[in-house]
Amino acid sequence: MSSRKKVMLKNKNSDYKLKVIILGDSGVGKTSLMNQYVNKKFSASYKATIGADFLTKEVLVDDRLVTMQIWDTAGQERFQSLGVAFYRGADCCVLVYDVNNQKSFETLESWRDEFLVQASPRDADSFPFVVIGNKIDVDDGKRQVPQKRAMTFCQANGNLPYFETSAKEAINVEQAFEVIARNALAQEEAEEYTGDFGSSTIVDIGVGSEREGCAC
Amino acid sequence: MPDEYTPPASPTASYYDLSDDDEDYSTITHTSTGRGVKLLYTKSKVYVHPTPSAKDNIPGFIALIQQKPPPSENTSSAPPGTVDPAQLLLAWLPESALGSAYDTYVKVDLLDTSSTPKQTYLVPPPPVSSGTSSLGSYSFSVPVSQIYSLLVRPPSLGWWWGSIVINSRGGDSFPALFFHDSECASTIAQGRARTAKTFDPFGESGELFWGGDEVLRWLKRYVKVERSEVEKSVYLINPSSDDLLSFGQKPVIDAMAAKRNAEAGSSRNSAVAVMDPFTKAIKTARWTLLEQFARVTQFSRQTANNLMDNPNLPPQVRKLLRNPDVITLQDDFDSARLYLARWAMGIAEQSEKERSQIVWKREDIMEMEDSAVGEFEILDIEAGNLRIDGDRRKLVELKEWDSWWNKTTGRLEITVDEVKERIFHGGCDQAVRKEAWPFLLEVYPWDSTKDERAALMNSRRDEYVRLKGSWWDDLSRREGQGEAGEYWRDQKNRIEKDVHRTDRNIAIFAGEDTPHPDPDSQYSTIGTNVHLEQMKDMLLTYNEYNTTLGYVQGMSDLLAPIYAVFQDDAMAFWAFVGFMERMERNFLRDQSGMRAQLVALNQLVMLMDPLLWKHLDKAESTNFFFFFRMILVWYKREFDWSDVLRLWEALWTNYLSGQFHLFIALAILERHRTVIMDHLEHFDEVLKYINELSGTIELNSTLVRAEALFYKFQRTVEASDRKNGFPSPGTPQPMVRLTHRRSESSSVSSPGFPAPAAGKGKAVDGPEITEPLRALLSREILRVEKKKDAQAEEGGKGKTPVRE
């Protein structure tokens, strides 16, 4: 099923279409990060995201042209149950918190678990997550989560890549997404290599040949 | 005697503009002070069926009545010798309302109708009705000049009674009138006479002779009656050339459609030739059908398996899933996880359920491929007609609003429906909003006096202050360390975060010149303004009023326009409470309200536009998630500020449906159906496209289109009910479940009877009107049922509702 999805996501201009999901508490800056990365813009007047939306961006990863489809979702827990509609087929999940908000950091683990439940990737242990601590532009006195603590968390959870960013000042955003793209691509390739032997062989055979047809 | 009517200098558009409702009232008011009106023709035992139960049927008379022309009006509008259609009234009166005039009606019923009446019979003028039929009494009369069309359905096998529905030029439908021919003395007599004369009990076109024919015959003596070429059951009254073009000689809008129509036409004539491709089509349908069913079952089984058996499932989650009773006691995210699991299961179940009790059968959709092409062109024309009637879509200004209220008592002097009709079609001027919104949002009862409202508002103000005080003065919550304090501060943070990003482009919310009252707030360095602070207070206070919901994103979007219009916190608060009565289901923890609406939308699209639905289904988009935002906050993010105000007040009227917002969704979808069907093939593409419509949708045409779609929906349901042998209720009957299918009627060949509503030509089995669909006919709003103990909790402030 998931490999069928991948094929459909193929874009004629680029080699791969990578699906990235941004998760995290309401107000940590998910929409801002996405907009800074894709449109190089920051607006102080974003509205709370309702439902879900995505932006796409074409990037070169090691000489390969990939299209990233970055999904931005509503941050309130109550709406997360909607995720099932668009988590499927994700290649990377970005967990965002606000370094000035302790609670948004504490919920990261739950966001991670929740993603795994809904997206149900083949191998949960190897699925790529990237953690971002946003809003480092806010003055130091307000910071609630020390860098060290965040890094300890990322190490303990399977050496997750960790970035501290400011979507407002465009600090580290590009760098974070470069890693996101790279890891997503690796995930995509790993999945293709492993193949999908587990289920629905009929569908996969048909789709597999279709994929080969358009890959060249 | 003219059987074929030669039209007088045909009434121009400006004439219709002149003869709006007010003037017609005055005409009848005039005659009612005089001697009465002429009863030209009448027919007895014409029933209104207000409910599905036969015992509720109301017997009455349909009558064609001539009233005196209004004295002051220019009499030159109709040439001598003819009757101005504005003078003619088509009326229905229950037997019980006739009083002493009953005998006259019986007498006129039995007169020979083969010619124009020779003698004048006077009866009391019938009551005037403004159109809608939901006002208790079903009697009505409508000037013939105001009739746009008649929907005529002769009796057929499986449906004993023929019926007529009158559609006014204003777009109103009157209750369906059922002709109980077997009880009607005149119809029995006329039928007998016919048989005696021609030995043919059938009418001219080979159809059974029935009462409705007579009504058409009466009208033909005075006005032009044209049967629509496109929809055979529609008869247009004094149609304009545009009407004729659209309903009669269908213009060749596109060559393909014309070709298909021609093909459909020719295949109808040669039934044998049809058989083979038909069977072939069915065979292909079966294949797709099986294939798709297989995919669905696989999907849902997989979802369930993934949840229960996935080795990667975190152990806590598995535990939660196994012990559903324990879950509510878990902390925030554990219960959130349960909800999402439930949601996921619910979706899977729902989609399976939907497929087993779909609106259309898949074969039916296949069958429609050829015939449905012209449908939406007809809709365009209908929408065009709705748009034309000028005055109804005029803004309600303060002067007009004030004229509806008694100067001294402040009591409403016209019907609530009339007010709602005006607001629904015209919208409120800025100055009227402050006056009208408290009624629309149930702060004030419509039947109150000025003094009663003042008293009510005083107590509401006190109550607002009390509710606000319950957190404002509660230091244990504002500063305390306990659970209640934690919850309250969490709520405050959520609210603050959203208020600071709600409608900041609107002048009153823009300023940041006031220092933030709370130095610990993340906004303390930015500054705030008094209106933002009021918004925060109101949302926090709403938690005191509704102690179970908690703040949910989107609520600040709902409050902002209300507050901006009133700029009075207590009034805005209670208006918001009224709005939340109907919006609360959007914010429920289990998302059941949102899901129900998305399901209803899914079924609505399937019923109204099966081909588009089929395309969306192929694109894995029938979850309709791309309408989530639009439905959650009623298009707040799609339209600009002033359009949102206009749209919301129209929706608040419940004028046509308590869920008219779903028809807005359908209208938006229909507007873009070609692009969607030609270019969008996957869920992400559909979602992106719909999301990006934000800021591009033209409101007025959308409202008109939604209204046209509603009428079309109503007709479709009626047609389906009729096909099922189910009486068409004159007023909406929510939540009636149809269980029996109508196979018996489709298996019997019935020459001469009209084809089912949807299929132009080929026999398509009718749609299934599901509960969610039927509920769309109701003008009631759907409120969240309050548990008893939730009410009892009132006053138990500081209660911690179930956490997210």
Description of the molecule:
Chain A is α/β, with parallel strands linked by helices and 216 residues long. Chain A has seven helices and six strands. In chain A, β2 (52-61) and β3 form a beta hairpin. With 804 residues, chain B is an alpha+beta fold. Among the domains of chain B are: 13-147 and 155-222, no CATH class; 272-356; 362-388 and 590-735 and 768-775, Orthogonal Bundle (Cyclin A, domain 1), CATH 1.10.472. Chain B is built from 34 helices and ten strands. In chain B, strands 1, 2, 3, 4, 5, 6, 7, 8, 9 and 10 form a ten-stranded antiparallel sheet that branches. The longest helix of chain B has 39 residues, at 271-309. Residues 1-33, 130-136, 199-207, 248-308, 310-357, 370-378, 727-763 and 788-804 of chain B have low confidence and may be disordered. Chains A and B meet through β2 and α4 of A and α8, α11, α19, α26 and α30 of B.
Annotate the secondary structure layout.
The complex is a heterodimer of chains A (216) and B (804).
Chain A (H helix, E strand, L loop, with lengths): L1 H8 L6 E8 L6 H10 L12 E10 L2 E10 L18 E7 L3 H5 L1 H12 L9 E6 L12 H10 L5 E3 L8 H22 L6 H15 L1
Parallel strand pairs in A: 1-3, 1-4, 4-5, 5-6
Antiparallel strand pairs in A: 2-3
Chain B lengths: L12 H6 L2 H13 L3 E12 L9 E9 L21 E7 L7 H8 L12 E2 L16 E4 L3 E7 L8 E7 L8 E3 L5 H14 L12 H10 L4 E3 L6 E4 L3 H7 L7 H15 L1 H39 L5 H8 L1 H4 L4 H25 L5 H10 L3 H14 L9 H6 L12 H11 L3 H11 L9 H23 L2 H4 L4 H17 L7 H4 L19 H16 L9 H12 L2 H15 L8 H17 L1 H9 L9 H5 L8 H12 L7 H12 L1 H7 L3 H9 L7 H25 L19 H5 L23 H5 L12 H5 L12
Antiparallel strand pairs in B: 1-2, 1-4, 1-8, 2-3, 3-5, 6-7, 6-10, 7-8, 9-10
Helix pairs in contact in B: 8-11, 8-12, 9-11, 11-24, 13-31, 15-27, 17-21, 17-23, 19-21, 21-23, 22-23, 24-25, 24-28, 28-31
